[in-house]
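new request in #modeling-help
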Amino acid sequence: METMALDGVSFAVSQGEFVAIMGPSGSGKSTLMHILGALDTPTSGIYVLDGEDVSKLNDDELADIRNKKIGFVFQAYNLLPRITALKNVMIPMSYGGISKEERLKKAKEYLKMVGLADRMDHTSNQLSGGEQQRVAIARALSMQPKIILADEPTGNLATVQGLEIMEIFKKLNKEGHTIVMITHESNIAKFAKRTITLRDGKIAQDVSNSKEEK
Amino acid sequence: MEFSELFFESLGTLTLNKMRTGLATLGIIIGIGSVIALISLGQASQKSVQNQIQSLGSNLLTIMPGAQRAGNVRSATGTSTSLTYDDAKAIVASAQITTVKNVSPEYSRRAQVVAGRNNTNTQILGATPVYAEVRKVSVSSGSFITQRDVDVSDKVAVLGPQVVSDLFGDGANPLGQNIRINGQSFRIVGITTSKGGTGFQNQDDIVIVPLTTAQKIIFGATNLTSISIEAKSAEVMTQAQDQIGYFLLARHHLSDPTSADFSILSQNDILSTASSITSTFTALLSGIAAISLIVGGIGIMNIMLVTVTERTREVGLRKALGAKKKVITYQFLLESLILTGAGGILGMILGVLASLIIAHFIGLPFTISASSIALAIGVSGMIGVLFGWYPANKAANLQPIEALRYE
């Protein structure tokens, strides 16, 4: 018998939402994240992103979707260690066929937005964890994606730095960015407007936080 | 992504680990360097051998007397078994032989030559004036043997530069002085221009005297040790060989070519034999060098595989950020191409320098052919693609999820 990582999970995220996906390990959050991030395709079922069914695309088409529509923020930041913050932010744009001048202009703009205007020419291993994660956010924003996917974005950070990162997400969401964030910390999940809790591959709970808080 | 960006990015990655990059490239440098050096030296020695053979004269046929038979069954000894001056004259006079330009009868033996207190053992060559033309000998001072010298068996000698320096010291001009050969006094009338050969026989270590003088006065012989013949052109060499062969068989009253008491050597035979020997050696040595090139290529593949494994997370990230397979493949392929390309160019410089130095020290002419340079560049590029392909593909086919998780 096949084990299903996700079973009957069905939900919609509208533009401008800030959703936290929670659940214990083994609940299927990583698998969900991979599908939402077009890193993997479901064995059955469909995933529609920005009006396009991406569940049946091939590797290169998925790469294109990831490049143009999704901005990733990983737990381990995943910056290239020996190149500058500026160059790290420019990587997705170089794959997206954006001109050199434009790339530089935008990378500077987004690094300023995350508060790293004075750190642009530092290589990633000269930056603190919090700074690295901010570079990663700038990188996620660089292609103006439809959705920002954050996988435990504060998992490797000290509490203070984690909260700073969450403030940035909150600000981005206010500016109209759609954010889906995976976390297992409920105090981090609180920053989102909606929390989906997974258990054993099924949606156990799907609640709006703003109402609870008020 | 533009090519130039990809190129500089690859270059940047390669400079991060200079030691490894250097060692990987070294394999290709040595491989390409040794291939170029060995091909170049092979060609140089081939050329040098050809030059030496050709310096003996062009379109040259040499008639040598047959090996002396054991057994003493032969009725008429002497005239019919040996080559004579008359044979040479008959070849010149014959109406059947149409392909011959010059005939040079020669009598050659070694003897002790004395001048004052110095003496040397050298080759004494009895010749006629034709010799100078057939063997491309010129005199740097004085004059060559004349027909009159031959007719009257004059005791004059033309010395090779080696003999001059052996007997009179370097740079001496002993023109008009006397030397003694087998106790007979000879007046020096000429000195030949140096041919600088070291090969089969040193053309500079020779004393040339009139043919008749060598035969009658010095050695007391009536036969010839060889007849050098210059054919009219390279095309008629074989024809000339046949014409002379049949003519001499008839003259020596021999009906069966297998019982010939002489043999005719063609310069072309010697040339092609020598060429085939040197080219075999060149091929052999290049083959060995090519093996080192393959080993170098495997070294590149090994390094590229290590690089791909090391950078699994990087590849995963790049794919997650939207890099297509093609971009990843190109990135790694370009890295291996830069490695082998740089190795090829450096190896080429090394090979050229090495062959220049070796050629200088062993006195070979330095040759470098465009084809061996093209070969070096082509082969190193091919190795880059060939041995870089597998690692590059391996990288391109990594699944982003697994690659990102890789520790």
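bot summary: Residues 267-310 of chain B form the longest helix (44 residues).
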